[in-house]
Every structure is written in C-alpha cells, then in structure tokens.
Fold this protein.
Amino acid sequence: MKLLKLFLILIYSVITVQAQNSFIIKDVKVFDGDQIIDETSVRVENGKIIEVSKVITPKKEDEVIDGKGKTLIPALSNAHVHAWSPQSLKEAAMAGVLNVMDMHGVEPYQISMRQLKDSTNYARYYVAGYAATAPNGHGTQFGFPVPTLSKPEDALPFVESRVKANVDYIKIIVEPWKETLSLETVSELIKETHKAKLIAVVHISRLEDAINVLNKNADGLVHIWWDKPIETSELETLTKNKSFFVIPTLLTTLKAFDSMGEDSKQFLKKEELLSEVKKMHDLNIPILAGTDPPNVGINYGSDLYKEMQLLSEAGLNNIEVLKTATSNVAKAFGLKDTGFIKEGYLADLILIDGDVTKDINLIMNQKSIWKEGQILK
C-alpha cells in the first residue's frame, strides 16, 4: 500500500509538472531575436517552444495566457560578469537574465556553480576560468592565486589547462596600466585557443591594443577603448578583413570615470564613447550587452537594463538594443537553443507589459519570466 501511494504521488507530480510546462501565450507581440511578429501566439511544451503561429488551438492540458498589450521576448544574457556565488546567478535570473558569461574567476568555485545550470531560479553560467594575464598584471589583485604567462611559449600549457577545466572560451587581458602580456604572447594565446576550437576574447582599454589584438584574430573585445576615438576608415579596414564582436560595458566605464574624478578628463567623454559604439554598429559589428558586475557596485540583474538604455542613447534602435542582450550573445558565444523565440528552442521567455519594441525603458515592466518553460518565482 505504501509503495502504491508513493507511486501515485510520483505520477501526480509528473502530471503536475507537465501541466505547468504546457501553455500558450495568446495574441502577443513577439520579438523573436531577429524581428517583430505582431499579435501571434506561442505554444510551450516540456520546456521548449513547439509552435509560433497566428492561431493555436489549445489542448485540454494547456494553460492559456492572455498576451494582449504585452511583448514576449527571449530571456536576456549578460555577456560580461564576474560571479562569485550562487546568489549572483539567482539575482541575474530574477531580472530575466538567464545566461551570464563569466570573464575571470576561481575555477574550482566555478565548477560547483555550474551545477546550478538546470535549476529554474538560477542563470546558466558560462566561464572563461582563469583569465590569461601577466605576473602582477590585471586580474592578479583579487586575493586568489592566478596562473600567469611571461612568454609566448606559455600559451599552449595555459590553454590546455583551461580546456581541462572545461571552460567555454578563453579570456585574455591586455591592460597597460599594470604589467601586461606582450603582443607576441597574446598572438600565441589566440592561435592556441582557436586550435582548441574555442573563441578568444580580449580585455582592452586602449585603442592601439584593440587594433593590435583584432589584427591577431581575436574574436571579441570585452570592453571598449576609452583613450581616443577610432577613425572610421580604420574601423572599415578592420571589418573588411576581420570578423569580431564588441562588449562595450558602457555602464562600467562611465561609473569608473565618475569614481576617478578629475583624472577621467584625459579619457573619452560619455558622448564620445557612445559615438564609438554607433560607429561600430553602423559597420555591422555585433554589439553585445555586458555590465562587468560586481565592479563599481553594479548588480547582476536589473543593471543590464541600464546598459541597454545606454546602447539606445548611442543610437541603436530598440530592435537592435534587444538583440544586444539576446540573439547577439547567443550567436557570438554559440549558446545552444536560446536567445530566440523559434520552434525547437528552449522556452526562455520574458513577458513584458507594454510594447518594449517601441520604448526600451519598458524592459523593466516584466510580468513573467520562464526558464525552459518553468516560471520563476
């Protein structure tokens, strides 16, 4: 009898989960990661998007959610974070940020935090492991031991160690305000990263370093330069010969400038930084939204909206801004089955009151968030 009761409880739990995971959002405006679809419906079953269609006939077990006056978008991704605890991943998820890209941390801690990737109330966690940096370079000052590189020959063992740690990409630091890697070492790191079939992203702060690492085939920049503007002709030359993305981290940079006071006057002003982003966007360089928390007090969740608002100020239209935090990140980092609202993709969704495609500030009006079809509490 006890076994029968346990079996019935188990069956009831499975049916309940399936029922909760089978729903239709009806008559909603959809931003699918590429384009806007006016007044359509989306069916979700068992954590995946099964159908996107004007008319969907409900099944008996379907919950039907009224989407009139609302916008459905893919869940957000933050392309640059440093997450030090599971609470960071929870804070991200509660703001609809279901994927975060960690750019330097303690590998043993990261391994345990990645176990939360299937938990509904936590963001998925992608990592670079330890970033590649020079002895006493940027990234060594945080109180935990960091492997460093002194010469090009160090590149292969460094990349091999990151591969053994099962990282998702390699992060390289070029920061001349401290000891930094030589261009020759950076070049070898990028070569070995590509041999390992991973992408290489580079921390820069100067325009000269940005141009140098892109000419060495870096896949992306995880900050924008802030010492001087780039000539449009030089940027055009780069885009003709190279393919790369940029994570400007505008919010971080501007907050850092505020903390510098008078010292920041030697660097680009806000309007000039925004202009650099617009130059890149106009040349079809993918722009990704990232905020670099917890630096300068930035949080893991809602501060991503501020980055999106800054990208809007830079002159990106609302559709392009939404792409920076959804499909652009998925494409750049090869995230599987997320970043889009399309059949076969994971049901990572945000339902927003109002039309966020017309007013990006409405990103804050989130009504419901689903991770793989399960609603976040």
The CA atoms of residues 278 and 316 lie 7 Å apart. Confidence is low (pLDDT under 50) at residues 1-19. The longest helix spans residues 2-20.
